[in-house]
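Predict both folds.
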Amino acid sequence: MDWNAAIERNREALKRVLAMLVAMAGLGPRGQFAFSPQEGAAVSRLVRAQESKLSLPRHLHRAVLRLLRPAEAAARRLVIVMARGLVVKLPPARPRQPQPRSTILHDRLGTGILMPRGFRPEAGPRPPARRTFSLPLLDPLPRWRTSRRPAASGIPRISFPGIIAPHSVAVRQPPSPDDPVDAARLALRLDALGSALDDLPGQARRFARWRARRDAVGAQDKNRDAACAQDRQGRSTGRTRRLWPLRPGRPPGGRQRAVHEVHEVLRDLQWFAVKALERADTS
């Protein structure tokens, strides 16, 4: 099996899907992102053009999101295939840093507040940090069916009989397909998908580090469970952790009948990812 040919073929297909999604959302040179081919970079690299707030009509936002979910799932499986047989060495654990002490000292007599020597208040509020987003390496788990809280159909009316007349309640309008929806997170997800497709070796090392941490924690949990079995109480202090990166059942955004190219890419990469994981577990 030619793994490299399969990786390159599906990578180019995901680049075409990403370019189509950016064009659908209207994120061209006048939008928040723009395609900018650079030397040594892939053609599909997304470059931030401006920080203005972006909004899309509801129907367009849902249409892009309907194809973005399977594209992200396919990219995760492409990273898993890329990380087959990759072994990394985990860095040593970082020592815990002591918590910073409070800059406000209380007087022992309780009559006021004393400031430490050399304390200088900040000049002003810090500017908000720039939001970043990375492609998640693990599939989101399926949501179990639970009873939803009914949506409120009105607002409470408080009045005094004989003094204040009850005001009329406006009828709640259903959401319109043309309502503006904030697309800032959607743009961040498109940016993360483009960055992951540009840096597949780096994403593969990232997944290999997660796999190494999972194996190390699993070995520690086995030793802890063996020690707890000898204990009288027999209680384990371990917590639930993800052991399998893929979602059980159908992948996110997957369909039985492919209606778009991204569904066919997801179906192929699902098979390759399962084979790569089985090969890593049996080796």
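Second protein follows, with its predicted structure tokens after the sequence.
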Amino acid sequence: MINSFYLINDGLSSPQRLHIKQRKYLNNGTCVNNNQTTWTYNQGVILSGLALLSNATNNSTLINIAQHIADSTIELLTYSSGILKEPCEPKCDSDQNLFKGIFARHLGYLLPYLTDTFHIQKYALFLQQNAVSLLTTNRCELDGLFDLFWNNNNLSTSCNLSRNTATTSSAFDLFISVANTKQQMLSSKWILLGLGNCMDDSNSSMANFYKNDINETICRATANADNGSVAYDYELKCNGGAFCRIRTLSDRHQTPDGWTYEDGIAHDVTRTNKMSLTNCYLKTDSMERY
């Protein structure tokens, strides 16, 4: 059922052949991938199974397979902003409304079995990014229910008809998974300082490298590669795009390819401006200075 993209299709089918004399189709005894929809929950439920089986058999190859599936899901079953997308969106049935939450839950189950710091941080950050997007854009203030969309989708309003107990249950799966990954995030090189752009106590900004239309994994990887980085902020835009700004002590000559340098007067990051749809992450080794 795992296809060439490391995604799991909807199921298996058995090719049939026509028996001329009996005038009916007969099963030829083989099962093949049906090449149908790659639902997010199918990508999720296998992750915890592979993790448990790997732990029971001491077979690390199974963890590698799980990481391939999770990586492909994050790459291929998401919006350009990096937010999880169900193939049926914008119109899903009552079962499909639950699928993304199932993926989030089982991705969280996988995390404790990983030893690769990069993937631990990548998956924890992915879950957190989705939770922030959902919590800040798609919760109906009238009844507290969450919408089908986790992305800030132009087709969606926070109180549209796609919200129900199923979509809200899916949202809770995501939030609980984020809460359970807190320990993994504590070992990260970066910590969430707060909602909004990264600032200093006088509301001034540091010099920075910035780039539009970029996912957060690349944003953080670029910040990791910059020896002068102090913090970065990542913004989800209303049109579904995203924006990354790396606050840095490096000069303009060290600007990464494809990025733009912007001057600033601040020399550190100590607070945020509480701007919505934006998170500021502080480099943990820079905290020793404050």
